[in-house]
Amino acid sequence: MIPQIPYTGIGIGIAVIFGIWSFFVAETVKERAVIAGIPIVVFLIPIVFRSPAGWLISTIGWVVYGLGCIIFLRYKGMPIR
């Protein structure tokens, strides 16, 4: 059997790292609530929708969350390349 690279897991891990970084950079309680609340919702999507579509929506949600955190960090002046 050929070992497979878990690209989905790597992508989720990167999104979580950017989320934690964004949480520490956030200045207001509202920003922190949004940054902490979105991953909870994205994590619960496959539990609510127990189908392949639920996993797909969750994966897309993690990608959008990670990109949103990168945009937030760039907006706050963090040098991300």
Describe this structure in words.
This protein is mainly alpha-helical and 81 residues long. Helices cover 78% and strands 0% of the residues. It has 3 helices and no strands. Helix 1 (7-25) packs antiparallel against helix 2, helix 1 (7-25) packs parallel to helix 3 (52-75) and helix 2 (29-48) runs antiparallel to helix 3. The longest helix is centred in the last third of the chain and has 24 residues, at 52-75. The protein is flat, with a radius of gyration of 14 Å. The mean pLDDT is 91.
Short note summarizing the structure:
This protein has helices spanning 7-25, 29-48, 52-75. By secondary structure, the protein is mainly alpha-helical.
Ordered list of secondary-structure elements with their pairings:
Elements: H1 7-25, H2 29-48, H3 52-75
Helix pairs in contact: 1-2, 1-3, 2-3
**Rg, Å, rounded:** 14 Å
Helix content: over 70%
Low-confidence stretches: none
Number of helices: 3
The main sheet comes to: none
Mean pLDDT metric: 91
Record field, number of beta strands: 0
Query: Structural class of the secondary structure composition?
Result: mainly alpha
Q: What is the succession of H and E elements?
A: HHH
Which word captures the global form? flat
The fraction of residues in strands falls at under 5%
Seen as an oligomer or otherwise, the chain set is single chain
End-to-end separation in angstroms reads 37 Å
Keywords:
81 residues, mainly alpha
